[in-house]
Amino acid sequence: MNASAVLDICVQALAAAAKLSAPVLITALVVGLAVSLVQSITQLQEVTLSFVPKAVAVAIALAVSGHWMIAEMVSFTQDLFARIPSLLGVA
């Protein structure tokens, strides 16, 4: 196992983490922006008004994209396990 193989695995792991976190983060970003826009227009600065909609939206995003996230993680893990013999130089 050389440095390029380790770097390749790290790059793939970071790409998978970014891909898996994108639906939740983008949902929280969009909802947070919309809520803050409404709060600034109405001048109503209540903490729960920004937290509750984001929490609900993130829960919905997880429910909608959860199956895809699990499938991606299983695929990534299976690919890593399939690469073990070549990384160790056995095959």
From TrEMBL:
Keywords on record: Bacterial flagellum, Cell membrane, Cell projection, Cilium, Flagellum, Membrane, Transmembrane, Transmembrane helix
Membrane recorded as keyword: yes
Membrane topology: Multi-pass membrane protein
Entry function: Role in flagellar biosynthesis.
InterPro entries from the UniProt entry: Bac_export_3, FliQ
Similarity comment: family membership: Belongs to the FliQ/MopD/SpaQ family.
Gene encoding the protein: fliQ
Highest rank taxon of the organism: Bacteria
GO BP, sorted A to Z: bacterial-type flagellum assembly; protein secretion
Transmembrane segments: 20-39, 51-70
Protein name in the entry: Flagellar biosynthetic protein FliQ
GO annotations of cellular component type: bacterial-type flagellum basal body; plasma membrane
Main localization (coarse): membrane
Cellular localisation: Cell membrane; Bacterial flagellum basal body
